[in-house]
Specification:
mainly alpha, 280 residues
Length: 280
């Protein structure tokens, strides 16, 4: 790209990033992302309590994933309005990250493209969840677990699809490991600037617990994809809901699931703090 064109593109992207409206919507996106995680954590805890009492461990309208959280919102008074806010906020976050990816500048080519890939990947994740929210906002419904199983079934029936499913599992495990690392090392403080004192201590506490808990959940999701590939059973690849339900079936799994549920609520609270104090 010629220097003049690049400078013009950088200026346009920088102007968009500095937009007060986009900043507000992006912060709203962090807030609604937090709300979804709080709902998912609550559903996970309800699954743990149900399993402890000998009841069903999941499924139906209590899926412990974004679809379950959105379905819960849809069933509350004014829930559709909230879901519209969720969709708009998440799409705004996606745009924010795409702009940030475009504006990445680093003298080392490898680091520059690594940072861009990370931001684009985050944007794709927000677009995916935002699209699910849009379906609910328009009066429809979708099941993330069934969608995941359907894609996996298609891949497993395709030449070389087993290796693609394994690769997906490994990528998700890598993302989960990154979440755990970021939580343990408190690297998440690079994304947020809370005031010193009690507020910062609280943010650090919920950040560590939240990032580690979500990382563990994602690692389990990745393992289930690999299990699906190894057993040629797409039903194993059931996303976050399947991962949390699988935890409940392990020895002491109900306790682990309860802790993960609390951790996802903590991650949701961190997202709320990031909406308020996040570095934009």
């Amino acid at each position: 790209m010629p220097d003049n064109a690049r400078d013009a593109a950088d200026e346009a992207a920088g102007t968009a990033r500095d937009s007060t409206t986009l900043r507000f919507l992006a912060r709203t996106g962090h807030a609604v992302n937090g709300l979804l995680h709080i709902l998912i954590g609550g559903i996970a805890i309800s699954i743990a309590v149900s399993a402890l009492g000998g009841g069903s461990t999941g499924g139906g309208s209590n899926d412990a994933d974004q679809s379950g959280a959105l379905q819960t919102l849809a069933g509350t008074p004014g829930g559709i309005v909230v879901i519209w806010v969720v969709a708009v906020g998440l799409f705004a976050l996606a745009i924010w990250n795409l702009i940030a990816a475009f504006l990445v500048r680093n003298s080392e080519t490898r680091k520059r493209w690594s940072q861009r890939f990370t931001k684009v990947s985050i944007a794709v994740a927000y677009i995916t969840v935002g699209s699910t929210a849009l379906v609910f906002a328009l009066g429809g419904s979708t099941d993330s677990s069934q969608a995941s199983q359907g894609v996996t079934a298609t891949l497993l029936s395709s030449p070389g699809g087993v290796f693609v499913v394994i690769a997906i599992g490994l990528v998700i495990i890598g993302v989960g490991g990154f979440f755990v690392f970021k939580g343990v090392t408190q690297k998440f403080l690079e994304d947020i600037a809370p005031p010193s004192g009690g507020a910062k201590r609280t943010v650090v506490a919920v950040g560590v617990v939240g990032w580690v808990a979500k990382g563990v959940a994602l690692v389990v999701v990745g393992i289930l994809f690999i299990v699906a590939a190894a057993t040629h059973d797409p039903d194993k690849a059931s996303g976050m809901d399947g991962a949390l339900t699988a935890l409940a079936a392990l020895p002491f799994g109900v306790f682990i699931l309860f802790v993960i549920g609390v951790g996802l609520i903590a991650y949701g609270l961190f997202c709320g703090a990031r909406a308020r104090w996040g570095r934009m």
